[in-house]
Amino acid sequence: MVANRAKLKLAVLISGRGSNLQSLIDACDDADYPVEIVTVVSNVPGVQGLDKAEAAGIETTVIDHTAFDGREAFENALHDAISASGAEFVCLAGFMRMLTGGFVGKWRDRMINIHPSLLPDYKGLHVHERVVEAGEKFSGCTVHFVVPDLDSGPIIVQAKVPVEPGDDADTLAARVLDEEHKILPEAVRLIAEDRVSVDGDRVIIT
Ligand code: GRF
């Protein structure tokens, strides 16, 4: 990080276990990591990721989508919570709600997602089952900017892993997850260092 530059204020959105959140928390333990997680928001109450945030002393908010009358009301509350935290940038880390174009537009080029496949292949759910079923020899994970279309958007970082003989969805998921925990903090670092720009459908890293 450039000396004296303020750390990037990051909001992390989760829906569950929060192992990718933990990888960011661990990265932030390094005083030189140019990022501060200012809030963790979950759309699901009581998930493990909230415990991980609280253990790290990070403010948490639950915005339970089932308590809202429609997506717009939910997303307005989500936007308000993120904005109130002072976050400049949003990371979807296992956040399992689809977001409308209205919300995505408010955070255009300021919101990323991690997905457990080599996008643009295997968008959507049940990725590892589908990869194993298809007999792929490789899989991986992708960090990308969020656009209104699901699991699309300019790709920032990817990592590739082999699909081993005998893999099932769980063994493959574990191998991919190890890589997710590396590329997510790396992508966020590149962004915080102002080294990432979006040019149409492409990301340029300098
Ligand atoms: C990860 O595999 C992520 O790529 C996907 O959901 C999973 C979340 O895991 N979007 P965790 O909650 O970060 O442990």
Strand count, sense and barrel status of the largest sheet are: 7 strands, mixed
Mean pLDDT value: 97
CATH H-level superfamily title: Formyl transferase, N-terminal domain
Shape: globular
The strands making up the biggest β-sheet line up spatially as 3-2-1-4-5-6-7
SSE string, helix = H, strand = E? EHEHEHEHEHEEHEE
Unreliable spans are: none
Please state the second-level CATH architecture. Answer: 3-Layer(aba) Sandwich
CATH class: Alpha Beta
Q: How many DSSP-defined strands?
A: 9
Q: What percentage of the residues does DSSP assign to strands (E)? A: 15-25%
Would you tell me the structural class of the helices and strands?
alpha/beta
Q: What is the percent of helical residues?
A: 25-40%
CATH topology: Rossmann fold
Number of continuous helical runs: 6
* Heterogens: 5-O-phosphono-beta-D-ribofuranosylamine
Tag the structure with descriptive keywords:
206 residues; Rossmann fold; 9 strands; 6 helices; two-stranded antiparallel sheet; 25% strand; alpha/beta; seven-stranded mixed beta sheet
